[in-house]
Design brief:
Distance between the termini: 23 Å
Helix content: 10-25%
Strand content: 15-25%
Radius of gyration: 22 Å
CATH architecture of the largest domain: 3-Layer(bba) Sandwich
Structural class: alpha/beta
Shape: globular
């Protein structure tokens, strides 16, 4: 069988795409490497809480239950995604990792780890922005007695040993983890830039409500506001870390430059001795499994215009700043999915009419 569309990935992007395709006559299938929808969220650290309220954390067609001005937890989102897939009866095949995909004369051939082959006229790659963990090469200089984890591997304090912990990376995940650990351990936080804080709420309204009102939430990537936001990077949402630093519960350090055994050195030549390191240093895209030339730029990023590539029938969904600030988030991926759906539907109808003629 040749499907009209195959979606690779059953996270928030893939599910949103499935929601719209369900409204059409097109045959489609979603392939996902996890056992259950939402497993990727459950594998993240236990205390993870979104900085978007429930009002700004829903996918198209189904509201996230609960107090709309409250902040959902990791497990709440995992449960919601599972309920979303069930509610719309989305056709998902689990435990399907895709090690190879190629384009054979306009038909995409997708090979899975189960030695199964699927064929499709169109493919939406919805594998998300969190693919290959980035761990700096200096990590290899650590003494083997030191426990080191990427933030994607960290779940709770039981994974760590007695002694101080260094969190490297000043994003929202790294700062949340540092705040959590500071309740029980001596914590150092190493960052490469000055931290910028924004409140989770302002005058009892979510900061994202204000973003929405002032047009920041809908700023397009190529707009003046969009370019400025991208150059500045994400702020830290909430003031918990700020309070912990002021109280001395988290010690802020400059960029990590060198490691020797169990001693970590920083840009200002100061150093600390630690027993644990958590690398909250982000992720790289990984698309080596796509055996199609001229798809990626020299940095390995997809070449696309709002998710539409120069390869006929191949699309990406859920990329950071794919179109707007929220393109990779629950609050924004639905708009991009609808845009791709309309493009796919129009292209399919055009193809069908050409074939009939």
């Amino acid at each position: 069988m040749v499907y009209d569309v195959i979606i690779i990935g059953a996270g928030q992007a893939g599910l949103s795409m499935g929601y719209f395709l369900k409204k059409s006559h097109l045959s489609f299938l979603i392939l996902d490497k996890a056992n259950v929808v939402g497993d990727v969220w459950r594998s993240r650290y236990d205390s993870l809480t979104l900085f978007t309220t429930r009002k700004y954390s829903s996918l198209p067609g189904l509201l996230l239950d609960g107090y709309q001005d409250g902040f959902p937890s990791r497990d709440e989102i995992a449960d919601y995604l599972k309920r979303y897939a069930d509610t719309f009866s989305l056709p998902i095949k689990h435990n399907m990792e895709v090690p190879n995909m190629l384009n054979n004369q306009g038909i995409f051939e997708i090979y899975t780890n189960c030695l199964q082959q699927y064929k499709a006229k169109k493919v939406v790659v919805a594998t998300g922005p969190f693919q290959t963990p980035i761990i700096p090469s200096i990590s290899r200089e650590l003494d083997k007695s030191i426990i080191q984890l990427h933030s994607s591997e960290y779940q709770n304090i039981t994974q760590l040993q007695d002694g101080a912990v260094l969190v490297v990376g000043g994003g929202n995940s790294g700062t949340q983890i540092a705040v959590e650990l500071s309740e029980h351990k001596e914590v150092y936080l190493s960052v490469g830039q000055n931290l910028k804080f924004l409140p989770l709420k302002l005058f009892s309204k979510s900061i994202f409500w204000w973003f929405d009102k002032f047009g920041i939430l809908n700023a397009k990537k190529d707009s003046i506001i969009g370019r400025k936001l991208q150059s500045q990077g994400d702020p830290i949402f909430g003031y918990e870390l700020k309070g912990k630093i002021k109280e001395g519960n988290v010690s802020l350090k400059q960029r990590t430059t060198k490691i020797k055994d169990n001693i970590v050195f920083f840009e200002d030549n100061s150093s600390v001795i630690v027993k644990n390191i958590i690398w909250a240093t982000g992720f790289n895209f990984y698309y080596e499994w796509i055996d199609i030339p001229d798809l990626l730029d020299i940095k390995g990023n997809p070449i696309h215009e709002r998710g539409i590539t120069n390869i006929n029938g191949l699309y990406f969904l859920g990329l950071p700043w794919q179109h707007k600030r929220g393109s990779s988030l629950l609050l924004g991926v639905g708009e991009d999915a609808q845009y791709l759906f309309q493009h796919i539907l129009k292209d399919s109808e055009l193809l069908d009419s050409t074939v009939m003629e």
